[in-house]
Amino acid sequence: MNTTLPKLHDRVVIDREHLQELFVALASKGYQIVGPTVRENAIVYDTLVSVNDLPIGYTDEQDGGTYRLKKRSDKALFGYVVGPHSWKKFLFPPVIRLWQARREGNGFEVVPENTEAPKLAFLGVRSCEIHAISIQDKVFMRDDYSDPTYRSRRNSLCIIAINCGEAGGTCFCTSMQTGPRVTSGFDLALTEVLSNEQHFFVVEVGSQLGSELLQTIPFRGASKEDIQIAENIVTQTAEHMGRSLDTTNIKDLLYRNLDHPRWDDVASRCLTCSNCTMVCPTCFCTTVEDVTDLTGEQAERWRKWDSCFTMDFSYIFGGSIRPSTKSRYRQWMTHKLASWIDQFGTSGCVGCGRCITWCPVGIDITEEVRAIRASESLSTQAAKEQQ
Ligand code: SF4
Ligand code: SF4
Fold it and tell me: Tell me: the pLDDT tens digits for 328-347?
């Protein structure tokens, strides 16, 4: 038991052999630990009980429409980037019953839902993902409108973050200023160091809870050299982003180009499968479905994830507002990168790259913006030459 606990923003070092004790500390505080693990040839987020459930010695290769797991030459625990899952599935579940009612004589009785939230600890949260969670906070935890399921799960959440040790082929968090360095919104932030036969974690304390978790875990104070090694890892990651996105005046750029021919071009490739919205950590669209049993004694209302790529999503009396693929792709991208800023004061994109990796035809949001921007630059240049 450590009697002197580190303070906020202090950095300590935990050796790899003691990381299991973080699991024990979280469990002893009643947390269900969720984190990365290998399932069906991908790294997904699921319940973990020990360090051995992590994807030890794995990495991933990602590109447009491509994802492949590979073995590393070392035993890194976090040597990969983000996979098809995001944390939103735990805070904002894909399917949830909102209410149910039973017939009672000539009326009905609403049966209260169990809204008790699981006490979750997310382990291995990347910087872009912390930003995605804070974007969803703006959607679901407003003072005037608040989602009770999200709020209760979010309020009891513990976040153990990880600074990225390498960038994925579709990552562009530096362009969106959302990473790769974890800067806020965490209880503990780990940087994994593997060098000269040494394997340890430089750990930054981000909250009182984070400090308390260290009570039963053997650690030592981080030296200047340890801190510098950890800083260098993140700096190198930032220098090796797989993609980039020029966000200069991006809102106006997209609003100016609602009739750009590029939307027809992307529509000729897009399958409207909605994969991009399902994997996106910030997308939040839902639909509700009411069901009754055959006797008419019981009725239920369910909320399910939906997507602006489905025809039904924009259906109102008389038809769908966005019947074409072009209008649906334009809606998605313009919302993410432009009208989201008007609505929530922030971009709806954190540069995680999932929509690029998991698009079956490899449509790349960074490339679509680049194409529109490049055509504007060309026409400006042509106009100047004519003058
Ligand atoms: S952009 Fe790609 S992932 Fe998104 S709907 Fe079109 S085909 Fe599917
Ligand atoms: S739009 Fe694409 S890159 Fe941006 S946050 Fe969503 S999935 Fe990630």
Answer: 999 999 999 999 999 999 99
